[in-house]
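Q: I have 495 residues here and want to know how they pack in 3D. Can you give me a structure?
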Amino acid sequence: MAKRKSGALLTRIVIDRSSRAPLFRQIEDQLRGAILAGSLSGGTRLPASRALSVELGVSRQTVVQVLESLAAEGFLEMRRGSGTFVATTIPQHVPQRVPSTVAPGMPGNAAPRVSLLGSRFGAAEVDFVSRENRLFLPNSPAYDQFPFALWQKYVNRQARQAYRGNMGYGDPAGHAPLRQAIADYLALHRSDACDPDQIVITPGGHAAFMVAALMLTDPGDGLLFEDPGPLIARNLFESLGRKLVHVPIDDEGMDFEATVARGGGERLAFVMPSRQHPLGRTMSLARRLRLLDWANANEAWILEDDYDSEFRYTGRPLPSIRSIDRSGRVIYVGTFSKALFPALRLGYLVLPPALVGMFRNAIALMLRSVPLAAQMALAGFIADGHFASHLRRMRELYAERRQAFLVAAARSGAGLFEVDMPDSGMNVIAWLQEGRNDRDLAQRAVEAGVHAYPLGEYGAQPLPRPGLLLGFTGVAPHQLGPGLEALARVLACTG
């Protein structure tokens, strides 16, 4: 009579020999999963390694490697002279892992226990939009005109110059040559001199907003916010538990005086004075000075987002609020996402001296440091004058595309929309007829190959008129006519 194999036969283990995963890893993961799922309970005896190797069609060495690895993890017990057993410390019913395809909180699953901040971030509306082949997508640079070959030289240079000092953690405040290059650029091109030690590098502009909100306000504090205003920034501040006080926009920018006269005790004002998003308005000098007076009198702060201010088509770029601040109440935020490309993920803060240490420590504790390689490449690109040259070329190019857009829009959009073209920036507003649903029309436009943002999504309060936000800087000349005609067809067919 043949000797009977002892132990579990593990018929559920399936080996995929076409997989790139090693055989021992496939067996190990499935055996561990069977134990965690309760299919193999504590004390269950496994077949001998020879029997298992035959059953699974693998070498005995592979099976021994799996068993020894799981024993080291505590899932198995290897008893000399008796065999291999599922560890007796494994309970009969181990909580199963939620499958990766099932999101916590979906019907049939209990919502996970998280922090208040976690629940706010989980509920935030975050819509990722791929920037590839998106006609009229707002805020898109002219990728087709970016000097990739030149930029690659700087990326390669920093790689060749890599040494031990450049392969560790960087200074939390940022790469010193980059901070110097930014300070030189601001002094020369923005009439805003600062010490390089006042600059802290961040992974993009929104990281700068987050750090500033955390450092300067507490949950529940009031924050002046332009209405309509940037949607992602609004969601960020609300998710952090800040109380947004929505302030209307007029031809002089944020009309804050009636709001602050009520004495709400707001701690921070988030403003985009050079080119407000999405309306494109510019804050007047008189209002900038009064905002500074308010901040100084109330020990409040101004978070200045210098949003794509480099692209001004009538005269020089306007000076920042920080450049006229004499009391150290302005935190200036700059970014290279629009001037170069968003994937670079580099931004910066220019801080009053009293805040530098705090912000530097915050970056160190929350982010440790910003990746050094990109900082090194950008520092050389700016220092050698290529950043300023690129901006000059893009201003000329965008001015041409801006004019071409106006001509094409007048031809295609007559009677369907009115173009509001600000003096600066990368976008235009197509104002629609009263009663039109800009959210619905934006969705229909996307289906037709035109990516427009509905203005209604930017406002906390209903806007007096519907409209669509369209980008023109990333649109090649041959795309303008067909794209605007496609938009016109959408508007005409849904009238």
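Q: Anything worth noting?
A: The chain is about 40% helix and 15% strand. Residues 23-86 form a domain with the Arc Repressor Mutant, subunit A fold (CATH 1.10.10.10).
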